[in-house]
Amino acid sequence: MPVYTRAGFSRTVIMFVALVLTAVTTSAPAREFRAADTQSEDYPTVQALRFMGRLIEKKTNGRLQIRVFHSRQLGEEKETIEQTRAGAIDLNRTNVALIGSFVPAMNVLAMPFLFRSIEHLQKVLDGPIGDEILGSFEPYGFVGLAFYDSGARSIYNSVRPIRSIADMKGLRLRVQQSELMSDMVKALGAEPIELPYGQVRTGLATKLIDGAENNWPSFVTTDHYKYAGFYTLTEHTMSPEVLVMSLKAWTSLTTEDQAIFHDAARQSSRFMRERWKDLEEQSRRQAQAAGVTIVSEFDRKPFEAAMDGIYAKTRRDPAAAALIERIRKVN
């Protein structure tokens, strides 16, 4: 039998332990974070989440990864928001109107006729006000990471072109599951029907609803334009999308990894904006080619005046009133 010196034996043990540790480290699975998005696989927000995932995977050498569940695979937006708050979903892209039931500041961003233009909206979101709003999520179980564009939402229906507020009377319009959106449609003289996003196409096809309100890409990518041939450019809200992370998932990260997630989210926001512009124009052309009647000239002032009651109600909250005024002062 070979005889080992004490030094030789020690070196053998050290090498053996090193090999074992290397094998364990190499075979250890990467940590995977689940991200939810109700939009289709090729939608800009889904592409942005995947872009974010690639940045994080590269920065951490594959140690942290994001798996994106698109097309409502994890449920409708209201359900996924609740799951994110509980920590069952790690990341969630959602519209501000829906998360407003949890985070009050989000309701202000969804206020009708608040933003003068997309440029005005982006100045607000990219500045101190946007940072403050994202920083207000933690007491409600979320961490605000970034805003995504959502364009301007307009009203479409299958009954008649809307050129005045009188044309709204009696229309059954789908709205998000949001008290604010229901109040807005009621103020315009129509009947709000709260439906999950995934049920709108069926609602239009079966005449359960006469129409809905959304942006150009959502109008086209969901085939709503095939059932609702009148699209009026009311552009009543320009509420953005927001990317949030479960507070439970966020606090499980190191400070260094939190910085990586935060930076990747901001980069994904810029990535999303570039793709959004292209899809918006492409969607409008597709709807027009399909014969959709686009109404750009309509009597806007009565629509804005009808929102007075909603603003009066919102301004009862001093914080909301102050935020509205700050937003309006941004040039």
Short structural summary:
With 331 residues, this protein is an alpha/beta fold. It has 15 helices and eleven strands.
Q: Please state the average pLDDT score.
A: 92
Q: Widest sheet: strand order?
A: 2-1-3-10-4
Helix/strand structural class: alpha/beta
Span between termini = 86 Å
Anisotropy-based shape: globular
Largest sheet report: 5 strands, mixed
Strand content: 15-25%
Which stretches are poorly predicted, pLDDT < 50 over at least 5 residues?
A: 1-7, 9-28
Which terms would index this structure?
331 residues, alpha/beta, four-stranded mixed beta sheet, 11 strands
Structure explained in plain terms:
This protein has 331 residues and is of the alpha/beta class. 48% of the residues lie in helices and 18% in strands. The protein has 15 helices and eleven strands. The protein has helices at 6-27, 44-59, 77-86, 96-99, 104-109, 118-126, 128-134, 179-187, 200-205, 216-221, 247-251, 255-289, 301-305, 308-314, 318-329; strands spanning 31-36, 64-69, 91-95, 142-148, 153-157, 172-175, 191-194, 211-214, 230-237, 241-246, 293-295. The longest helix has 35 residues, at 255-289. It is globular. The protein starts with 5 loop residues before the first helix and ends with a helix. The model is unreliable at 1-7 and 9-28 (pLDDT under 50).
